[in-house]
Every structure is written in structure tokens, then in C-alpha cells.
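ARCHIVE CARD
Drawer: 12
Card no.: 0347
Subject: one protein chain, sequence and derived structure
Cross-reference: see card 0346
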Amino acid sequence: MGWRIDLLATAPPNDPTSGLSRVVYALGGALAGRGHRVRVLYPADDLAETPPAGPVATVPVPLLGAGRRPFGRDIAIGRNASALIDPDADLLVGNDEKAGAFDPRLTRPAGRPVFAFFAHDVALHTFDTLRPLEARRGLRQRIGNALDRRALKGLEGRALARARVVLVGSAANRELLERYYGVPADRVRHLPLGVPDPLDVGTKAEARLAVHVPADVPLVAFVGRTPDRQGLPTALDAFRRIRVFFPGARFLVVGSTVASEPGVTGLGVVDERTKANVLRAADVFLFPARYEGFGLAPREAMRYGVPAIVSRHVPLEGIPAPTAVRVVAGDDPGEYASELAELLADPALRREIGEAGRRLADELSFDRMADRFVEIFRPVLGG
């Protein structure tokens, strides 16, 4: 007999902007395939919109009561989701700071449902990493940042304190939880994220045709929705430097907007097929992230056989550098440019690294993630 599991996602099932939500729905589908009854609750601006059919039940959460206070939307989602949780659920999993606003009766330390918190990211660390990068706007901004940080710490801290099990996607996040919140190691379990299967978009030449890139020019790709966090300015600077030596080179940016400049095309948020065409067409994937909880984007590129250049901040458990991925030790764009130029100049090296990365990333399936999930919770839930 399977478990009854409620998962909280950060976005609707048809929203292409949230990589974590895609993981939540895919994990839910894999768990449903193992006989568990799974529902995914998600924030919905339009309750009348019918979500697409899938292997798991989906429950829209209204955004009523979202005030203007710091993280007011997240608080409203957590509170409103509380009323929709299955009263007979065995397990409730929150995936970000919204879970800190759950009704405390749902997250009591004993009984049902068992409450687990998936710290795919340590939000307070992300806040401390990114807010200093913003343009300074004076006293009002500093006060706003202080209020935001206090609210975020309260929400994330409550979710962590109430959770019977804390899940992380990487050892780096385990260390951050201890540093920021003092979470003991015996409450933390490692759950590597699954990576979506590659879409069949045809050959590399066909993919190039689909994204309007000539077959005979070097192509670099970047995928990221939070450009400052994921290092887009550094990536652009590195590309400008190598374009002196590869004058026809192109750089496609997925998920973020960029100013127009020679060789650079910003595609913004795209559907999955367009992203798949970009990855299939690319020669190199560039990802100079300042902080990544797991590094889903480079692993997804690896599944397409694209050699990846990443920062030292991307967790790479089980993916050895430099044989399967190139890791840049510093934050200087010149270091990324050197790695990029070497790979673009050597097709054989690209194939070697790309194939090694693909073999390792192929191991990160959602079936394996679901197996690990069941292994973690069997001692707690039984069955």
C-alpha cells in the first residue's frame, strides 16, 4: 500500500520558468508510478484555468490575502495551501520559504502528516549573495533589505525547525544549513535532483536551423532565469573576449533578457522544445554562477552531450573535473574566456568532455530520485 503525499510547488505545471517546479512534478510522477498517491499544490493567479493533465493530481492555491509586507505573497500561498492539504496525508513536503507559513498544526513534530522541508536552495544565503549586487539606492533600500531579510529568515527558519526530515540536493547546502541555522546533520538527508530527459529535436544541424544559427559557426549557450546569481554578466564578458578570435561566434541566452550586441541573442523565457534546440545546437554551455544549490541547468546541458564550463560554486558531486566538466577556480571573466577558447578550438576535446558529462548526467533520472526518496522516508512512514 502506497503513501499519500502532498508536495508544494513554486509554480503551475505549465510554467517553464521554474526549474524546481519541473523537478517537483516529475518526482511526483515517478512516485505515482510506484503506487503512491501524490498531489502537487501550486500557486494559481487564475483559479479558472484548467491545469494540463498529468500523472499526478494538481491543486491550485489561491493568492488571496497577499499583502504588501515582505514576502507577503509567499506567506499567503503557505497559509492558503494549509487549508487544502489532504487531512489523511502521510507526508507533506515544502520546497521553499512558503512552507514556513504553513499552519503549525500541519507541521507538528509528531503524528501525521510527517512534514519534510526540501532545501533545494538556502534562501537566506542566496539573499545575502545577491542583494549586495544591486545598485545602491540609499537608506530606503537598506531598510527594505533588512526587513526582507528578517522576514525571509523567519519563514525559512520556521520551516527548518518544524521539519522532521530536511532534504538537500547537495553537500554544499547541508553545510550552509548548519552555518546559517545550526541544523544538525542527523536531520538532513541527501536527495540528488533528477534531470529531465533530453527531448528529441533531431540532429545538431536541424537544431541549428530551428534557432537560426548557421551550421559552421561556434555556438555558446547560457540558461538561467536569475542572471546576476547565475553569472550572466561574467558569461557575456567572457564571450566578448573570445569573439576577437572567433568573429562569427554566437551566444544564445535562454531565460533572461540581454541588451543587443554583436553575436548575442537573448531569447528570454522559452518553451521546452526551444530550449532543447538551443542545447542540442550548442558547442559549449557556459555557467559562471555565483551560487547554485544543485546546478540543474549545467546537468541538463550535459544530458544533451554539451561540454559545460561552470564556476566553483556549482555542486558537482559525482561529476569529475576536468574530464566531464570544466570548473573555473576564480570569478575573472578572463579565466572563463580561456576555457571557452580552448574548447571552441578543439572539437575532439569537446566531444570527449561532452560524452563523459552525458554518461554521468544520464544517471540522474527521476526514477532514481524517487527510489532515493522512498529509501529516505521508509523508516519514518513505514511500508
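Annotation on reverse: Residues 4-194+365-381 form a domain with the Rossmann fold fold (CATH 3.40.50.2000). The chain has two domains: 4-194+365-381, 204-361.
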